Amino acid sequence: MNELLKRQIALLPEHPGVYLMKNKDDVIIYVGKAKNLKKRVGQYFSRPQSGKVAAMVHNVDHFETIAVKTEKEAFILEMNLIKTHYPRYNILMMDDSHYPYIALRRSDGYLSIARRTGDKRYVYFGPYPSSSGAYETIAVANKIFPTRKCATLGKKPCLYYHLGQCLAPCLHPLDKKESEKLFSDLRRFLGGDKKEAMATLKERMERASEEQRYEDAKEYRKMYLALQSTSEAQSVEGGSSKKDYDCIGYSSREGYFCLSILLYRGGLLLGKESMVYSAFNDGDKEEVAERLAEYYLRREPPKEILTTFPGLPEELSALMEGIEVYVPKEGVLLSQVELAAYNAREGLDAHFASARLHDDALALLEQLGQLLGIKTPLRIELFDNSHLQGSQAVAAEVCFINGEPAKRLYRKFLLNEENAGDDYHSMAEAVERRYKRLREEGGEMPDLLLVDGGLPQVHAALEGLKKAEVEIPVYGLFKNGRHQTSGLIDKDKKEYPLSKDSPLFFLLMRMQDEVHRYAISFHRQRREKAMREDVFSGIEGLGPKRQEVLRRHYRSLDALLSASKEELAQFLPLNVAMALYEKLHH
Asked: What is the pTM of this model?
């Protein structure tokens, strides 16, 4: 695995998305989906592979990802991209199959599964990530509404009529008002307004449970969960617009900005392009518009461009005639633009993690030593603090040797409560504890200590070193008036500016990003653990064993918050599940 792949994998988010594996010629050779991008992509390179997978991995030079919001979106986007690019190592979908839609016949409300959406006799809903989900939804609709069940009408009413689940069009023509109401109810239900149906199912489920009709309650619960899983909104396909348009996402940091362009064709997300530029004037709408105009000079632009960047529609419209540029205010289109902005942030982080990777790290460290007037700092350690209004205060230390992260030497610190929220004393405490122990154990000291936060943090680190009775050169990464890292500063306020285009700048940014990531990750773990323990406490019947079951199934607090009462009841007695749900959503 080359260094670029290592950096890309280390930076991947633990979110749903699609990954596009590319060879050295930048050709897409495989497209895959993931519930967790970091875990899934990393598995290709961290374990032995065989057959087709081994051949694919051998030919991967780099990869690209498109982050989405849900696993359902990842399913749909993967299919769209495979059908667009036909990658060599994917199983080709020669039958041109598609994710299923539910087809509602206008004339009589008959429901069926469709793979095409061109028949005007039907209204289509979807797509659904699996056929089973679509069939479950039809089954629920057929039980809640008096829909026509038979593909071919008989000469006498069937059992569904006697159960009150069919209007018996075989017996008599449907009344126009009755038919229109049924069609309207079904359209609203299949279009996403499922609150009334879910409330009905919930009421039937609870009544069946109270009456000890457990098989009926189980069936209602199954339908309820099916509705819940298929009713989530998605920003990849199925919006009201079937036009060709691009969504522009923007993100900036440290004097650079990224433009991420999501390409929607016929309403389907079919690709992403990301470009990173050095900003002449951070956040300048004219500069962003000029870069986009240059981009569209090299390719055919769509008729519509969507963005949320302030002032961009006016600037871009002046440069590109005949193109409608506007800011969506709500709905699916706004979600799609927000998705573009999320990918822009990820793209900019990836740029800082992978830019100038081929530079000679040892030569850059020698350059850093000459700049600061110290011996070449082959071993550099960095510190950062993290807390939320003083709660769950932690500090983290990372170590780089010869310009590469040495993760076995990373350390985490739970800070004393009296220092919580006090960045100065938190830094002093962490530094003292780290180097006092290192000195007592006879460990190797770093050549350079870097802190993020400028002069105050430099003095805090020096205070910690003094208490630990250790001497190490200390410098801080200071920022300019626009909150961009501009260079290094020493204890005497002497500044050492760095060009934002220099290889040394990118090396230090990678180090800074790594310690920040490590500190934030540790803080989130502590915060989630504390919040989960607080949520579980005081609930009668929720003992250690049941808590452990919940921890295994819900790895994060967000996952626990998204669980319904019915879902929690799979693992807990109903009264305990209800109590936990109420506490979670109080």
From this structure: 0.57
Cβ atoms 353, 11 nearer than 8 A: yes
**Does a structural domain hold residue 528?**
no
Helices then strands, counting H and E runs in the chain, come out as 20, 19
CA-closest candidate to residue 267, choices 325, 331, 188, 333: 333
271 with 263: CB under 8 angstroms? Answer: yes
Q: Are residues 28 and 107 in the same domain?
A: no
As a residue count, the chain comes to 586
The CATH number of the domain holding residue 287 is 3.30.420.340
Q: How far is CA 388 from CA 393, 523, 575, in A?
A: 7, 9, 34
Residue 95 included in any domain: no
Structural domain range at position 563? 537-584
| pLDDT tens per residue, range 142-175 | 877 777 777 666 666 676 665 566 766 676 666 7
Q: For residue 512, what are the CA distances in angstroms to 55, 343, 361, 451?
A: 36, 21, 16, 9
Would you say residue 23 lies in a domain?
yes
| Alpha carbon distance 160, 164 (integer Å) | 6
Last residue of a domain, one of 54, 85, 116: 85
Distance (Å, whole) CA 188 – CA 273? 36
- Closest by CA position to 227, among listed 206, 248, 197: 197
Question: Which residues, in sequence order, are CB contacts of 454 under 8 Å at separation 6+?
Answer: 476, 477, 478, 479, 489
Residue 380's Cβ-count burial label (10 Å; 0-12, 13-18, 19+) is buried
